[in-house]
Design brief:
It is built from 9 helices and 26 strands. It is α/β, with parallel strands linked by helices. Strands 1, 2, 3, 4, 5, 6, 7, 8, 9, 10 and 11 form an 11-stranded mixed β-sheet that branches. The protein has an 8-stranded mixed β-sheet with strand order 12-13-15-14-17-18-23-24, sandwiched between helices. Helix 3 links the parallel strand 14 and strand 15. The radius of gyration is 23 Å and the shape is globular.
Length: 449
């Protein structure tokens, strides 16, 4: 249990800021309590951190202490600030860049923890006041992206570029490839957190990274096939099955891997754009049509924030659209988990509905599961990552401010539920149904005295 040191005021009482745990993996909930206040005292709690580019992010919430002079964030109601109501993870989910420049908070270096300062301030302060207030007491939180013992190794294999993460211990581990979306580059935090939960996970880039193309003109499924073969050849990895986690733009090649690569037996799509805007080829042939939306499909609102018009696209996303991947042609042992938020402003739930209709028409609905989360938007991260309602998005020819949707509370619930369900889905279809792994268990049992 960690306690902050009081700096005085509020009746010169001994104020205690109790945080449990102070040091933890980032998907762990944190309990926060302030003790030693005067009864019915007005206080502001703030959480401050910086991204790896040293940009500042801040959240704040107003509380009123109870009759014993205590604020317990798990049970006390916030009456103002970044959120209201009882929201134990509200300070984490509500972090925004300060001053506001629409930057999305992501961890670029998974080998270092998030360092966050939790502070208590006298009175109900504005965001600007809380940013410069010294505070009554504070505590430093360390939220780690990797557990001790996880190994991170760079991957430069044939054309494949990325980093691979291995759990602590000898294995065998189920294999997962992590593919992010249209931001490009290499994102490693989800892969490192999965490795902390027992998966060998390869985070791959496919454009705008190293010697890869800066801008995508086509996607080659053989590139992703090379990544599958690479991870399945690694020591300690279950060699006959591979899972895929894909987000947004990465979902189109992710589904292609499930359809055309027999060793890929589980595909998770999170906010996936199932109908892609970039041609996907395999063995020299384009696999399906693309769909590029021009400016008429978008709405530019207040502060130049861009959203997709539902009225313009709802009749496009149909089960027979030539750009919808034919998941009904996947092997019988391949399963798909399609995740979206009901407030996703990229409207991926419409594409999921089209896919589910298509699978049902072909009698393959048992291979495809859909989960639509209330109050969540396009971006559903591992637990307790901040909720980005909107952020700068590079469309290649220009940068825009894209509305992603969702609420902090709905996003938090979706993160927690999806993180658990996704891990169980991958364990079942990559590890537990592996013939190699079952033989390994039998040998292990037979060798025991």
């Amino acid at each position: 249990m960690a306690e902050g040191k009081s700096k005085g005021r509020v009746g010169d009482c001994g104020i205690q800021l109790v945080v449990e745990p102070r040091v933890c993996l980032h998907d762990t909930p944190t309990s926060i309590m302030v003790k030693g206040l005067q009864p019915q005292a007005l206080v502001t709690l703030t959480l401050t951190t910086h991204n790896d580019a040293s940009q500042k992010f801040l959240s704040y919430a107003h509380y009123v202490s109870d009759d014993s002079g205590t604020v317990e964030v798990e049970r006390s109601e916030a009456v103002g600030g970044s959120y209201t109501g009882v929201f134990p993870a509200g300070l984490l989910l509500s972090l925004k860049e300060f001053p506001h420049n629409y930057t999305r908070l992501q961890k670029e270096d998974p080998t270092t923890p998030w360092l966050m300062t939790l502070a208590v301030h006298e009175g109900h302060l504005t965001l600007e006041q809380s940013a410069i207030s010294e505070g009554l007491t504070d505590a430093l939180l360390e939220r780690h992206i990797m557990t001790p013992g996880v190994r991170r190794e760079p991957v430069v294999h044939e054309r494949v570029r990325g980093n691979i993460f291995f759990p602590a211990g000898p294995g065998p581990y189920p294999a997962v490839i992590d593919i992010f979306g249209g931001f490009g580059g290499l994102k490693e935090y989800r892969a490192s957190m999965l490795a902390s939960k027992g998966f060998a996970c390869l985070a791959i880039a496919y454009f705008n990274y190293g010697d890869l193309p800066k801008v995508l003109e086509t996607l080659d499924l053989e590139y992703f096939e090379e990544a599958v073969e690479y991870i399945l050849q690694q020591p300690g990895v279950i060699p006959d099955r591979c899972g895929i986690i894909s987000s947004s733009k990465g979902a189109n090649p992710g589904l292609g891997m499930g359809i055309y690569l027999p060793k890929v037996t589980a595909v998770v799509s999170i906010g996936g754009k199932l109908i892609g805007d970039t041609p996907l080829t395999f063995r020299g042939q384009q696999l399906w049509k693309t769909l590029k939306l021009d400016h008429s499909y978008y709405h530019i609102g207040e502060h130049n924030i861009v959203t997709l018009k539902e009225s313009a696209v709802k009749n496009l996303y149909t089960h027979d659209h030539p750009g919808l991947p034919p998941c009904e042609n996947a092997p019988d042992d391949t399963h798909f988990l399609l995740i979206a938020g009901d407030d996703d402003r990229c409207l991926t739930k419409l594409e999921i509905e089209a896919m589910m209709h298509r699978m049902k028409l072909h009698g393959r609905e048992r291979q495809c599961q859909a989960v639509i989360y209330n109050g969540a938007g396009h971006i559903i991260e591992p637990p307790y990552n901040t909720h980005p309602d909107y952020s700068i998005y590079n469309m290649g020819f220009t940068k825009i401010i894209m509305k992603w949707g969702g609420t902090p509370w709905g996003t938090c619930k979706a993160q927690e539920d999806n993180w658990y369900n996704m891990k169980k889905f991958l364990e079942m279809h990559v590890r537990d149904r592996s013939a190699w792994y079952q033989q390994y268990l039998e040998r292990t049992r037979a060798e025991k005295p």
